[in-house]
């Protein structure tokens, strides 16, 4: 059973995946889930995807029907769960999620999807079969920073999460991705990066671990873009860049997939408590 697996990990001290892992046994600490069935894992992924939608709303990422979150189905990896078209992030429920294939054909669900937006996600998942989840939204700070066509410099510890692990992509900058091939440059960029700053468009994040991790790192990336815009506004003061070896060290401790998953657990606990209807 899932609960028994969690308790066993806790009693054993758990696998040491970060410096934040408690060394003392018997303490309450989030444990990655172990599933008794594919159905249980599917339900888990769908609930976390729904929670991510609600969190995007809470962080002010809503922009009409713009934005898409996807997570691969655990039983049918060629299929993906995504948010329904024209349903506000704040109103998405687990029962509303749509299962689609690489061509954007709805396999399960009552709602349509954003075909133009799905071009990017389909390409990301098809080209990178190890990627489990991806996120994109038209955020204010991410969109503003993307207009510069520059990577985030390592001038804050938080920004080090993305040091050497994000890329700026100019292909198709500002053009609505309608044609199927529009997603190919983005898909290739995710071969070696967890985040993309699509010039004149916005942010995209993918995870080989979970929708939890993808959601957290998207929120974190927009947060870092906001800080960088504030830093850029102080034109008379030049920021001090972090030493490359320290930036890389911080990335290993702050920007890995387990830490992304771990951060998300705090957000999930809050949103599921405040908005329990998301599980409907």
Automatic annotation (TrEMBL):
Family indicated by similarity: Belongs to the aldolase class II family.
A single MF term (Gene Ontology): actin filament binding
GO CC annotations, alphabetized: cytoskeleton
Domain annotation Class II aldolase/adducin N-terminal: ranges: 47-229
Organism per entry: Herbaspirillum robiniae
Protein name per its UniProtKB record: Class II aldolase/adducin family protein
């Amino acid at each position: 059973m899932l609960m028994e697996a969690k308790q066993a990990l806790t009693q054993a001290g758990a696998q040491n995946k970060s410096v934040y892992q408690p060394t003392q046994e018997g303490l309450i600490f989030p444990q990655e889930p172990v599933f008794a069935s594919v159905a249980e894992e599917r339900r888990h992924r769908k609930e976390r995807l729904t929670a991510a939608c609600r969190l995007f709303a809470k962080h002010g990422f809503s922009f009409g029907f713009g934005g898409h979150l996807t997570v691969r189905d655990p039983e049918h990896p060629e299929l993906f769960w995504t948010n329904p078209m024209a349903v506000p992030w704040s109103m998405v429920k687990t029962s509303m999620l749509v299962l689609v294939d690489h061509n954007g054909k709805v396999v399960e669900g009552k709602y349509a999807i954003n075909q133009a937006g799905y071009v990017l996600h389909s390409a990301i998942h098809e080209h990178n079969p190890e990627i489990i989840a991806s996120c994109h939204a038209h955020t204010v700070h991410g969109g503003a920073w993307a207009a510069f066509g520059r990577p985030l410099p390592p001038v804050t510890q938080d920004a080090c999460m993305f040091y050497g692990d994000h890329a700026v992509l100019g292909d198709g900058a500002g053009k609505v991705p309608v044609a199927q091939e529009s997603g190919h440059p983005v898909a290739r960029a995710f071969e070696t990066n967890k985040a993309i700053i699509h010039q004149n468009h916005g942010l995209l994040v993918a995870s080989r671990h979970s929708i939890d991790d993808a959601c957290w790192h998207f929120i974190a990336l927009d947060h870092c873009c906001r800080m960088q815009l504030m830093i850029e506004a102080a034109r008379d003061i030049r920021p001090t860049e972090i030493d490359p070896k320290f930036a890389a060290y911080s990335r290993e401790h702050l920007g890995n997939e387990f830490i992304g998953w771990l951060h998300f657990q705090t957000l999930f606990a809050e949103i599921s408590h405040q908005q329990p209807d998301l599980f409907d």
